[in-house]
Automatic annotation (TrEMBL):
It catalyses: (2R)-3-phosphoglycerate + ATP = (2R)-3-phospho-glyceroyl phosphate + ADP. The keyword Transferase applies. It comes from the Eukaryota. This is Phosphoglycerate kinase.
């Protein structure tokens, strides 16, 4: 339970041509500079007031991140198209109180594009051995798979490779084995389920390196699939040992990373193998995650709102600081609300508070005000006399929480105000629940926000659920398939939203840049 980054290889050219190109580049830079200056001056013209919607709220016991579902509907438009800023969106998004750096940020280039498996033609794939890193870390009850969502998520990439004649060599981890091979962490059951989903035999290989793999590859034909045993049966995997990575890559011609959930780890099967295999490209699932999460951050359709919930400010500092540089509205939910509330000098009863983060909360509010970001906190809260599903409850103004009571959800007034604030938004990212939604008495705030986002999606907005408990929340509300994108990564999603470079992504080949 939880309350939860153009490498242009300039080729030799005649002197006159190089000179002409230089003039063009200089001219382009001059135009770009003028745009930034214009945007900066405009953004400083008339400060817009910052609005707060009250304050207050909630708590939660943490639980391990669960398996996140993947919903593949792409809606009417591609992420890139939907994230492009129109003149109207730019006008809305440029807040008067924004600094020059914020204005410049909005005209900066998007993150470097990586090659995708779709960039590889049949001629480039036919008969080649493709080592594919999937995330097949599924929950098991003995040998029975209890949730095959991650297996299903890997199918589009596998089928593309199969249909284009590649010999597909799948690799993944499962669980956290401590001392070498453990039968309970074997990927054998996954091979059987893959066979069912693909409608063809999937050979299970008893090791991930060495002679067993060499023999398996020798017997493979175009379009066949084999699954290697758990890479984490070798401690060298998580240590990103070069020798291990070389052995893992030894039998392949190219590499496809389709495991977004582990892209933030520099492991042998995610980063190490790229040093020995070219091309190294993104699979469809990984590419979709990058298109949405990076697109939403780099070029969002505006207004752009971020909803950040969860129990502790400390776990979301990087995300909040990064989003304050980019969003128009920041809605705070979950237990972290009470740290903000107490930082304002208000009483919070027995609600969860990080005493050592009070100054941080004050600083984040100050930054929001300086950048013209509308910071929204709940104006009322649902209180409990104990952290229990059967606790007595009452609704109170966020500024009037009585002693002995704790906030476990946002109140009805707060929900109404938040839903109204989201109404005009064209892009929304949600990470972290609004309350203890595992307890029915304290689920309304989270469920209402989930339903509001579903309606926004239907109306044409881009809605992104950033992994973890937010996924469980939209599933509980039965609106998961109505969101634009459900992220499959917990830690990877957070790090990408923080603006961090994911090792598993950085190691992939960059998409060639077309030069007119």
């Amino acid at each position: 339970m939880s309350y939860s980054a153009i490498d242009l290889e300039t080729q030799s050219a005649p002197k006159q041509a190089r000179f002409s190109m230089t003039k063009m580049v200089v001219a382009a830079l001059a135009v770009a500079s003028a745009v930034v200056v214009f945007a900066t001056v405009r953004s400083m013209a008339a400060p817009a007031p910052m609005m707060y919607v009250g304050a207050g709220y909630s708590m939660a016991a943490t639980r391990p991140a669960m398996i996140s579902p993947v919903h593949t509907s792409m809606r009417a438009m591609s992420p890139v198209g939907r994230f492009s800023m129109s003149k109207q969106n730019t006008k809305i998004g440029m807040k008067a109180a924004s600094s020059s750096s914020r204005a410049a940020l909005r005209v900066n280039a998007s993150p470097e594009k990586k090659m995708s498996v779709s960039d590889l033609s049949k001629d480039e794939l036919n008969g080649k051995v493709a080592l594919v890193r999937c995330d097949l870390n599924v929950p098991l009850d003995g040998k029975t798979i209890t949730d095959d969502t991650r297996i299903r998520a890997s199918i589009p990439t596998i089928k593309y490779l199969v249909d284009n004649g590649a010999k597909v060599l799948l690799t993944s981890h499962l669980g956290r084995p401590k001392d070498g091979p453990e039968d309970k962490f074997s990927l054998a059951p996954v091979a059987a389920r893959l066979s069912e989903l693909l409608g063809q035999d999937v050979t299970f290989v008893s090791d991930c390196i060495g002679e067993p793999v060499k023999e398996a590859v020798a017997s493979m034909s175009a379009g066949s699939v084999a699954l290697l045993e758990n890479v984490r049966f070798y401690k060298e995997e998580t240590k990103n040992d070069p020798d291990f990575a070389k052995k893992l890559a030894a039998n392949a011609d190219l590499f496809v990373n389709d495991a977004f959930g582990t892209a933030h780890r520099a492991h042998g099967s995610t980063e190490g193998v790229t040093k020995y295999l070219t091309p190294s490209v993104a699979g469809f699932l990984l590419q979709k995650e990058l298109d949405y999460l990076q697109g939403a951050v780099a070029e969002p359709a505006r207004p752009f709102a971020a909803i950040v919930g969860g129990s502790k400010v400390s776990s979301k500092i990087g995300v909040i600081e990064s989003l304050l540089e980019k969003c128009d509205k920041l809605i705070i939910g979950g237990g972290m609300v009470f740290t903000f509330l107490k930082a304002r000098g208000l009483e919070v009863g027995t609600s969860l508070v990080e005493e050592d983060k009070l100054e941080l909360a004050k600083n984040l509010e100050r930054i929001a005000k300086e950048k013209g970001v509308e910071l929204i906190l709940p104006s009322d809260v649902i209180l409990a006399d104990a952290f229990s599903a059967d606790a007595n409850t009452q609704v109170a103004d966020a500024s009037a929480i009585p002693e002995g009571w704790m906030g476990l959800d946002q109140g009805p007034k707060a929900t109404e105000e938040i839903v109204k604030a989201l109404g005009e938004c064209k892009t929304v990212i949600w990470n972290g629940p609004m309350g203890v939604f595992e307890f029915e008495k304290f689920a309304a705030g989270t469920m209402d926000v989930a339903n509001a986002l579903a309606k926004l999606t239907k109306d044409g907005a881009t809605t992104i659920i950033g992994g973890g408990d937010s996924v469980a929340a939209v599933e509980k509300a039965k609106v998961a398939d109505q969101m634009s994108h459900i992220s499959t990564g917990g830690g990877a999603s957070l790090e990408l939203l923080e603006g961090k470079v994911l090792p598993g992504v950085a190691a992939l080949n960059a998409k060639p840049v077309a030069v007119a």
